Each structure stands twice: as structure tokens, then as C-alpha cells.
Amino acid sequence: MKTILVIESSPRGQNSISRRLTEEIVNRLLTKYPNSKITVRDLTKNPFPHLTDDHINAFYTPDNIQSKEQKRLLQLSNEATDELLKTDIIVIGSPMWNWSIPSVLKAWIDHITRVGKTFSYNTEGIRGLVNDKQVYIAVSRGGFYSHDPINSSDFQEPYLKAVLGFLGIKSIQFFYAEGLGSSSNIDEVITKSRKEIDKII
Description:
Elements: E1 3-8, H1 17-32, E2 37-42, H2 53-59, H3 68-86, E3 89-95, H4 103-112, E4 119-122, E5 125-128, E6 134-140, H5 156-166, E7 171-177, H6 186-200
Parallel strand pairs: 1-2, 1-3, 3-6, 6-7
Antiparallel strand pairs: 4-5
């Protein structure tokens, strides 16, 4: 049995292509790992707050001297980091918005990127603490950003690779639904993505 954490960041509900892909990924994982425990965080229904100065000060205050207000501010972040560390597989749904990721996904990332919890400093530099995780990322895009000449405008995939790698995650697999802005057959795009999911997972 595996523990699977699903992170949804599209507000479009049933009209969301990234959500259709995360569903395909989870279904494939359940076929491979029956009876797995699934936790879903829908960041559009329960968003994480953008970080304030008070949040950041609380992040860097040792647990034993945190005030009651700091503990309150850190509650959601602590839950998210503990959840991340305990899970085996992470499935992230991310539409491309303005060449990057939705702000709700960025806010979640800001809350899980925690010194002493998900990364640490030592004499050799920075070390990620989120190890031995498999991450699958479902990406939906209006254009074909995996190809020239517009791939230089893709700040979505490089950012997600960089931040997850910073946390120590090495196994990251992307699945794409691209060209949605010009496609007249969305189901055909989904079918192509589904075949790639079935081949890799």
C-alpha cells in the first residue's frame, strides 16, 4: 500500500484539463498499488495564505520559544510539511498561467519550503530533506511549450523541477496536455496524455 498526496491548483472544476490528468494518474496508480491511501488538497477550495512578515518570523523561531500566535500561524504549514514528508507519491495538477504556475500552488510551495523541516543548512551547503518520493506533475498548456521557439517562455516546468529538487526530490515525471488553445479536439489531447501515463506508470 502507498500513500498518495494529490495537489490540485486549477479552479475550473470539471472543465479543468489538469484535473482530468491528475485523475488519470491516480487511477493508474491505484491499479498498480491497490488499497493505497489518497489525500487530496484542493488549493482552490482551501488556499494557503500568502506569506507575511509574521509567517516568516515564525518559520525562523525555534519551536520551544514560539508564541501562541506564531504557533497558530504555523499550524497549516506544519500540517502540510508533515503530510508531505509522510507520503510516498505526490501528484500535482498545474495549469500554466502566464508562463508559470497558479498563485495558490506557489503559496503551498512557500509553506512547505521550511528550513529544518524540508531542507537544512550544513557545512557543505543546503540539503533537501524530502527524500525517496515519486512526483508526477500533470501540466496543461495553451501552447506547445515543450518545443521551440516558445519553450524559452516556459517558467512552469523549470521552476517546479528546481524547487522540488531543492527539497531533495529527484524522481519527477511530467505529463503534458499541450496546444489546448489551438486544438479543436480536447479529448484527442487527453487520449495522447493518457497513453503516456499508461506507458510510464
